[in-house]
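Continuing the series of single-chain predictions for the mutant panel. This is the parent chain; the variants come on the following pages.
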Amino acid sequence: MESLTNLLPDLEPSLQIVGLLFLLSFLPVMVVTMTPFLRIVLVLSLLRQALGTQNAPPTLVLVALSLILTGYILGPEITQINTKALVPLANNEIKLPKALDITYKELSGHMLRNVDVKDLKFFYTLSREPFPANVDDVSARELGTAYLLGELRRAFQIGFLVFIPFLVIDLIVANILLALGMIMLSPTIVSLPFKIMIFVAIDGWDLIVKGLAQSFN
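Parent structure:
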């Protein structure tokens, strides 16, 4: 695996803190590109649109739920990062570059399990570099980009399946209103309580959360 220790040289502790603060500014990008967060938050956002509930649940709630699920899915990796990187770093047993390298290696294991090989090959072709024979030689740039592309694809595939039942309900309600001559009444307003009722009856949130958690390798 491409090492991250070259990101920070063997600096003085004060300079390493400055470097750490600089890297922390990229933490949101890392969460989106290297964790399950992107797939989860996209599916939940598409679910909200399919229900037609506008801003309910609020975006903050969806983001919080996505972060919590991300923590559960990455539980083993987070435990290893804490044991091998954060605790030794806090005890001055290892230095910051080594801690960063351990963190990346743990996260890259998750990405390699969920990345599509065809996406990896595409980005290696795009960068005009030979495709590595060993997974340990996959570079961070190609792996991160391929993983991001794959997560976008899977999120919209799941979102499509989520949309279908609600679309059917909208079509049924629209046809009934048209048959009754109520063309001035918005089908969305009438179908909303039915969609919420059915979603609650089948315990939709439980199904969505469990399905998302099980969609990761």
